[in-house]
Fold this sequence. Notes:
The chain is 34% helix and 30% strand. It has 169 residues and is α+β, with helices and mostly antiparallel strands. Helix 3 packs across helix 5.
Amino acid sequence: MKRIELLNKSHNRGLFDCGSEALNQYLQTAARQHTEKGVSRTFILTDSEDPKIIIAFFTLAICEIYANKLPPNLAKKYPLQVPGVKLARLAVDKESQRQGIGEILVFETIKRTYIISENVGIIGLFVDAKDELASNYYQQFGFTSLADNPLEMFLPLQTIREILADHIT
């Protein structure tokens, strides 16, 4: 059975390979330290049959952006700077890619963002897509591009609520 948990010392970070050296390096050298220092939280997907093996991971952090980067209909509703949750990294091991795991992780980030919104003021979930292909991927979940950079994307809290309501009913 697959489960998502916070990255810890027992997980074998060295075996993970998603095909991106930058993401592999982050997981191997910085993710756990960032968690311990409160910079971000990295969650991993494992299988109960071998819980030390990392199938995939995602990293969440709190961020702040200038409201004028938001779509104009939203920008006018907010003060100059607004807080949000940032999906800072998301990666799936090469052996597990193209199996719907990315979708599971994105949905998990959406659920966690909603939980955070119940405890801290935020306006939604942000992600920096690495390229146009990734941007198209995030668009299927309702993310929209920010005004000054099409690879910086935003999922408003209202959309998050709607997504979760659709999955509950």
